[in-house]
Amino acid sequence: MPATARPPSGRATTLLLLLPALAAFAGLFCYPLALTVRLSFRPEGAEAGWTLANYRLFLGDPDGRAVMGLTLGLALAATLASIALSVPLALALRTRLRGHRVFRLVLLVPLVVPGLIGALGLLLFWGPRGWFNLAVAALVPGLARPLPVDYTVHGLVLFYVWLYFPYTGVTTLAALEAVDPAVEEAAAVAGATRWQVLRHVLLPLARPGILAGSVLTFMAAFGAFSVPLVAGGDYRPLAVEIYKQIAVPIPARWSAASAIAVVMGAMQVAALVTYMRLVRRVGVTR
What we know:
The chain has helices at 10-40, 53-59, 62-93, 100-112, 115-125, 131-139, 153-177, 181-189, 194-222, 226-231, 238-247, 254-285. It is mainly alpha-helical and 286 residues long. The chain has a single domain (32-285), classed as MetI-like (MetI-like fold), CATH 1.10.3720.10.
C-alpha cells in the first residue's frame, strides 16, 4: 500500500491561516509606515538623500510645540470627561429604568454618524444662532451676546466628548452589567453603604472596562481630524497640521508632513505606554 501523506503540523496550519492577515498587515500598515518614515528624513523637494531638518524645523518651532501640547491636552480632557460622564450614566442604565433601550440607542448614535457630518451638526447646534444659544437667550433675556462655543478649546473638548464618549460609555456599561448582583448584596449585608459598595466593589470590578474604553477614547481623540478641521478655527491639532502641510502650500510639503506624522505616532505610542504603566501601578497598589 502506498504511504499516506503526513498531515500538516499544527504550526504549519496556523501559519497558513495567518498568511492572508499577515500580508494585509504588511501591505496596509507596515509599508505605508516605512514610506512615511523614509519621507520624513528626505530633504523637501529632493528625490534622494536624508536630513533631520524636517524634525528640527517642527520641534524647534514654538508653534509646533504648541500644536503638540494642544493635541495632547484635548485628548486628555476628552478622555477624563468621558470617564466622568460614563460612570453615572452606566450606573443609571444598568438598573433597567424605563426607556433604557432608547438611551442605549442614543448612546451609540455618534459611532454611526460620520465625523464630518457630526462636526457640521455640532457647529450649527452650538453656533451663535444655534439651538443652544437661542435657548440661553430665551432663559436669560438680558444676555448681551451669544456664548462662544464654536472655534474655542472648550468647544473642541465638548465636540470630542460627544463623538468619542461612546467608546468609554459602552465598555463601562458592559463591565458594570457583568458584575454579579450577589456581590453587591453581600456587601450590603456586611453593612456597606451604597457609596461604599460603589467605591470598593463596583468601580474596582468595572475598572478594566473603564480603562479599556478610555484608551480607545484617548487614541480616537488624539488622532481627531474632521472635528478640529471644521470646528477648530485657529486651534489645529497634529492631524490638521499634517493636512495643512499637504493642502495649503504649493507644492505640497510631503517631507514636513511625514515628519509631523512620525512625531504624532511616537507621541501616541509614548502616551499609551505611559498610560498602561500608570494603570498597572494603580492596579497593584489597590
